[in-house]
Specification:
The chain is of the alpha+beta class. About 30% of the residues lie in helices and about 30% in strands.
């Protein structure tokens, strides 16, 4: 490799070139290694993730909290034309972590999104380098909302299942086998706050943030804060809490929430 004057670069200069980045050869080796790790361990286990995934999900699995910002296009703000849901997740210092986007492109999907409420929604959580970290699938259900969350290798990591509750919106956060890992509860008198509890103890909190008068009045662009308590050390449950944040937005703060259960939405009124 030569410098800008056409002279060969020294070995130490080549090392400086890659400072803060990963060389193509190393990226290829890391990708191959990650592929061999797919399917090993429990879904979402950080020990089997690539370095890129561990870096992007590190604040999710170990940090004190996150921010999730929903992005809106002018067509949606001005005329109400519903576009694909898009979000950015960052740590508390504003460092970018993940891009979260709804799948389904083209006019056919756009028409379904705006005219047909009984549709399935899928979100993909992508790193800055374009690697899938998580995915969320929410089919349309007649009664209660049901969501599947898949790990980076496509295996089911857990489910979010709405259930009936008095004076609160309640979900079970379950393992792939159906065991309840935690509950998500949103009191009726605090419509912007949801508490994650294990054995009755609060371990995380999801809050919708005020986005400003203009944004709140003329669009359904939402901002969320996620607070992880020190007692929550389960990396997989923390990833499920991030997925639950997006589910909360889809169910309760989207202008067109018909993709959640129709009867479940009515029951929320009595929750």
């Amino acid at each position: 490799m030569r410098d800008e004057h056409g002279r060969p670069k020294r070995d130490d200069e080549l090392e400086l070139d890659w400072k803060g980045r990963t060389a193509p050869e190393e990226r290829a080796q890391e990708t191959a290694l990650a592929e061999t790790r797919a399917g090993q361990g429990s879904p979402g286990d950080p020990r089997y993730m690539s370095l890129e995934l561990r870096d992007a999900l590190g604040p999710v699995m170990e940090g004190p909290g996150l921010r999730v910002h929903q992005m809106r296009e002018w067509a949606e703000i001005l005329v109400g034309w519903e576009t694909r849901n898009r979000y950015e997740a960052s740590d508390l210092e504003g460092r970018f972590l993940l891009y979260i986007g709804e799948t389904g492109e083209g006019w056919g999907q756009a028409l379904l999104r705006n005219l047909w409420p009984f549709r399935r929604v899928e979100l993909e959580f992508m790193t800055k380098g374009g690697t899938r970290a998580l995915s969320l699938e929410q089919p349309w259900t007649f009664f209660f909302t049901y969501v599947e969350v898949k790990a980076w290798d496509g295996r089911l990591m857990g489910t979010l299942q709405q259930r009936f509750g008095l004076l609160r919106r309640t979900f079970d956060i379950c393992s792939p086998g159906g065991a309840v890992m935690a509950t998500l509860e949103g009191p009726l008198w605090k419509p912007w706050t949801f508490h994650v509890k294990q054995r009755g103890e609060e371990v995380a909190t999801i809050r919708k943030k005020w986005s400003g008068l203009g944004t709140e009045m003329f669009s359904d662009s939402d901002n969320f804060g996620v607070e992880f308590h020190p007692s929550l050390t389960d990396a997989r449950l923390r990833q499920l809490v991030l997925a639950a944040t997006l589910m909360v937005d889809l169910c309760y703060f989207e202008e067109r929430s018909g993709h959640s259960g129709a009867v479940g939405g009515l029951l929320d009124f009595f929750d």
